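Milestone M4 deliverable, item 7.
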Amino acid sequence: MKVALVYDRINKWGGAERVLLALHKLFPKAPVFTSVYSPKHANWANEFDVNPSFLQKFSHIVTNHELYPFLMPIAFERFSFAEYELVISVTSEAAKGIITKPGTKHICYCLTPTRYLWSGYDEYFKNPVLKMVASPAVSYLKSWDQIAAKRPDRLVAISKEVQDRIKKYYGLDSFIIYPPVELTSKNELLGSSLKKNKKGKGYLIVSRLSKFTKYKRIDLAIQACNELKLPLQIIGEGSWKKELEQMAGPTIEFIGNVDDTQLVKYYQNCRALLFPAIEDFGLTIVEAQSFGKPVIAFRGGGALETVKEGKTGIFFDKQTKDSLIHALLTFENMHFDPAVSKKNARQFSQNSFKTAFLKLVHQLV
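Output delivered:
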């Protein structure tokens, strides 16, 4: 069976890219079609046969794709998949809008309905001038996005949160296959560190720090840890980093990007993961638990599906500094069994993902 993968853009590293790698393991010969490709910023994709769109000719778009959303529908509609029996799109934007012929089946693994058009619209367009100027483009993109969502033969959501959004914004049904956690297997190899550092040195955040992902609310974690003078390590890079560094006190440390081997050590040595965002799923929440570490998360989004309150972590109820501070003070007097967190994380394993996805493929093709 000839299979092709489609992804919005290959120019960064994050949770969605781990999903693409997991699919690559299932279909190692499948080429990847994408809008733009930056080998410099995505060396993880070296093993892929990457086929970028015509946008690749414009070098400034490769790392500034956010400024050209109106070109993305054209980029994906121009690809031809006539020679393939199955196409799998992994998308939070335009990749679901590919056009396939009747003989080709299309599975869309939806990370979320396009955030800046729907659930995150008010956040992205806070500036009234920008909102007014962008209105015609947004109106066009919303209309196109709803049409594009109807093109796949199967819509798969990464969480109940995303399933609800698909129903709300597209009026379509979908079913859930949770994304796989890449680091879980390494936990078993390096698990001895849990005994040496049961409580952990400080708190941890693992996130992209882009100015386009301010909804992740890393600023709340910094403000709360500043006030309580608690140690916090932040892993990640992005255009928001300088602003965050300016507000950070002496107990906040910015680590930058790390490889998986280093990331394992940071998880093992942390006290807990802080997760202040409303996320579609929240892969880092499961990664932390796979190393026996509890999570302090905002009560919303995918965290409600992955954190067992009082057993593998706790929630705070408002996205405010004071609410997070209250949670941190509560957490300091609690005990969590690492074995319970590790057990909870196993339901999001690579094997679970593989079994569920291949079952879907066999039903469809």
